[in-house]
Amino acid sequence: MAVYKVTVATGDMVEAGTNNSISITLVGSYGESRRTTVSFLFLPGKEKSLSVHCGQDLGPIVLIRLHKWRLFLEDAWFCKDVRVTAPNGTLYRFPCYQWLEGITTLEVREGSGKKLVDDKLQILKEHRRRELAARQEAYRWKNFAQGWPRCLNVDSIFELDSNIQFSCTRAKNFTGFLIFQGASHFLSGFLLRRTSWNSLDEMRTIFSRTRGRDIGGCLVCCPLPFPLH
């Protein structure tokens, strides 16, 4: 009997937890475990620990499957990561950072970076193929107008998967940044200015405060009249 210690972490953002059932399957080089229930209740920022009992050593753990199932109401769950400790003490990390919605199964590879040529097991080759096909289906492009850059082939960001949409946390940070900059420009006399600039140095005094700030992603979180790209 081989016993694996598993720790499942939920993200700390609002509504990351769930009351839906979450179970896990460990996949190793020599075989895989049975599907084991983790919990029926996950709270934001908290971890759940459990033991997975297997009839034999699974070998190096290369993949895990997270199964989400609901009985009545849907309650999305954001998985931060999963850590698996083998009987010999080896720790395997599986970074996830994804939303699981509906009745679904998500496969997550072990966290060490590998290239295509490093995938010796057929199960890893198949996982990479399915992941590529899913990405190609999610990121479909169209021409917004002649001469414009291509944009996502959707009418609204709400047609996209939750993991592609701009996060609520990021959107709030972006909105807060705009409010802060607007207040700064107002106090500096920029917004209500009725006269011409006296010099380029005077302009630099105002705009240097926003230079280099990270405001990436606004094309995704804001419904602007130009294409997403």
From TrEMBL:
<comment type="pathway">
    <text>Lipid metabolism.</text>
</comment>
<dbReference type="InterPro" id="IPR013819">
    <property type="entry name" value="LipOase_C"/>
</dbReference>
<dbReference type="InterPro" id="IPR001024">
    <property type="entry name" value="PLAT/LH2_dom"/>
</dbReference>
<keyword id="KW-0106">Calcium</keyword>
<dbReference type="Pfam" id="PF01477">
    <property type="entry name" value="PLAT"/>
</dbReference>
<dbReference type="InterPro" id="IPR001885">
    <property type="entry name" value="LipOase_mml"/>
</dbReference>
<dbReference type="GO" id="GO:0005506">
    <property type="term" value="F:iron ion binding"/>
</dbReference>
<feature type="domain" description="Lipoxygenase">
    <location>
        <begin position="114"/>
        <end position="229"/>
    </location>
</feature>
<feature type="domain" description="PLAT">
    <location>
        <begin position="2"/>
        <end position="114"/>
    </location>
</feature>
<dbReference type="GO" id="GO:0016702">
    <property type="term" value="F:oxidoreductase activity, acting on single donors with incorporation of molecular oxygen, incorporation of two atoms of oxygen"/>
</dbReference>
<feature type="binding site">
    <location>
        <position position="76"/>
    </location>
    <ligand>
        <name>Ca(2+)</name>
    </ligand>
</feature>
<dbReference type="GO" id="GO:0016853">
    <property type="term" value="F:isomerase activity"/>
</dbReference>
<dbReference type="GO" id="GO:0005737">
    <property type="term" value="C:cytoplasm"/>
</dbReference>
<keyword id="KW-0223">Dioxygenase</keyword>
<feature type="site" description="Essential for stabilizing binding to COTL1">
    <location>
        <position position="99"/>
    </location>
</feature>
<dbReference type="InterPro" id="IPR036392">
    <property type="entry name" value="PLAT/LH2_dom_sf"/>
</dbReference>
<feature type="binding site">
    <location>
        <position position="17"/>
    </location>
    <ligand>
        <name>Ca(2+)</name>
    </ligand>
</feature>
<comment type="similarity">
    <text>Belongs to the lipoxygenase family.</text>
</comment>
<keyword id="KW-0413">Isomerase</keyword>
<feature type="binding site">
    <location>
        <position position="75"/>
    </location>
    <ligand>
        <name>Ca(2+)</name>
    </ligand>
</feature>
<dbReference type="InterPro" id="IPR042062">
    <property type="entry name" value="PLAT_LOX_verte"/>
</dbReference>
<keyword id="KW-0963">Cytoplasm</keyword>
<dbReference type="InterPro" id="IPR000907">
    <property type="entry name" value="LipOase"/>
</dbReference>
<dbReference type="InterPro" id="IPR036226">
    <property type="entry name" value="LipOase_C_sf"/>
</dbReference>
<dbReference type="GO" id="GO:0034440">
    <property type="term" value="P:lipid oxidation"/>
</dbReference>
<keyword id="KW-0560">Oxidoreductase</keyword>
<keyword id="KW-0479">Metal-binding</keyword>
<protein>
    <submittedName>
        <fullName>LOXE3 isomerase</fullName>
    </submittedName>
</protein>
<keyword id="KW-0443">Lipid metabolism</keyword>
